[in-house]
């Protein structure tokens, strides 16, 4: 296993033309101010989007604020939803972009990383057996992710948890694809360090 794919959620089947049509109608009703449509959208997607906010923010109360703020921003911009992709995908991008903006504003240490050539894979077969990702499945991964710097955590969540491509992440973070790859590489190394640190036996 070369990356943290055990994090990644399996995509659900769907995306048929009829579903897209119904979602577009639902979005249009919500954009027109229909409360029941807004409520339906919120109830349908709030759990997964809250999970995204929580993982990216690393703080429960901040994630609640980001959830509300993200949906408010999405509802204000629903007229921009054209139905070219699933409504959930569009909402994810709006909320993720809002989370990135909020974290960048609140974290003075948030800086784009230098582009580096990745010569080694932190999850390669040459790693010690105790460092293999399979071992980490029993460890508190969520808590370790919360300890990552905000920039590392964001790219790790988007790529390894949510399955975004580097091109998508780069566009969201307004950086190059190389920078996104560098950020993920360093995030994985930091995650490995945190998790292995948790496995060390405590000395008496």
In short, what is this structure?
The chain is built from nine helices and no strands. The protein is mainly alpha-helical.
Structure in words:
- This protein has 204 residues and is mostly helical.
- The chain folds into two domains: 17-106, Rna Polymerase Sigma Factor, Chain: A (Orthogonal Bundle); 129-199, Arc Repressor Mutant, subunit A (Orthogonal Bundle), CATH 1.10.10.10.
- The protein contains nine helices and no strands.
- The chain has helices at residues 17-31, 35-57, 60-76, 87-106, 133-136, 141-146, 150-161, 166-173, 177-199.
- Helix 3 crosses helix 4 and helix 8 crosses helix 9 (177-199).
- The longest helix is centred in the first third of the chain and has 23 residues, at 35-57.
- Mean pLDDT is 75; it is low at 1-15 and 111-139.
Helices and strands, in N-to-C order? HHHHHHHHH
- CATH class of the largest domain, named Mainly Alpha
Overall 3D form: elongated
What's the name of the CATH homologous superfamily of the largest domain?
RNA polymerase sigma factor, region 2, helix turn helix motif
Q: What level of helicity do the residues show?
A: 55-70%
> What is the CA-based Rg, rounded?
19 Å
- In the predicted model, the low-confidence regions spanning at least 5 consecutive residues are 1-15, 111-139
Strands, total number:
0
- For the residues shown, what is the average pLDDT? 75
What are the main properties of this structure?
Rna Polymerase Sigma Factor, Chain: A; 9 helices; disordered N terminus; mainly alpha; Arc Repressor Mutant, subunit A; 63% helix; 2 domains; elongated; 204 residues
């Amino acid at each position: 296993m070369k990356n943290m794919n055990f994090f990644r959620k399996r995509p659900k089947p769907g995306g048929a033309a009829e579903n897209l049509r119904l979602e577009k109608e639902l979005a249009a009703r919500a954009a027109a101010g229909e409360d029941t449509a807004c409520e339906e959208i919120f109830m349908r997607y709030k759990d997964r989007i809250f999970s995204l906010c929580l993982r990216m923010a690393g703080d429960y109360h901040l994630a609640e604020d980001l959830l509300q703020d993200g949906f408010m921003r999405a509802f204000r911009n629903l007229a921009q939803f054209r139905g070219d992709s699933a409504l959930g995908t569009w909402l994810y991008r709006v909320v993720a972009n809002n989370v990135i903006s909020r974290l960048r504003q609140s974290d003075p240490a948030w800086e784009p990383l230098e582009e580096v050539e990745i010569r080694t894979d932190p999850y390669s077969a040459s790693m010690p057996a105790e460092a293999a990702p399979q071992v980490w499945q029993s460890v508190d991964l969520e808590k370790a992710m919360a300890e990552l710097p905000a920039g590392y955590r964001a790219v790790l969540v988007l790529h390894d948890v949510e399955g975004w491509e580097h091109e998508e992440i780069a566009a969201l973070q307004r950086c190059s694809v190389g920078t996104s790859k560098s950020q993920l590489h360093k995030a994985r190394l930091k995650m490995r360090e945190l998790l292995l640190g948790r496995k060390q036996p405590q000395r008496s």
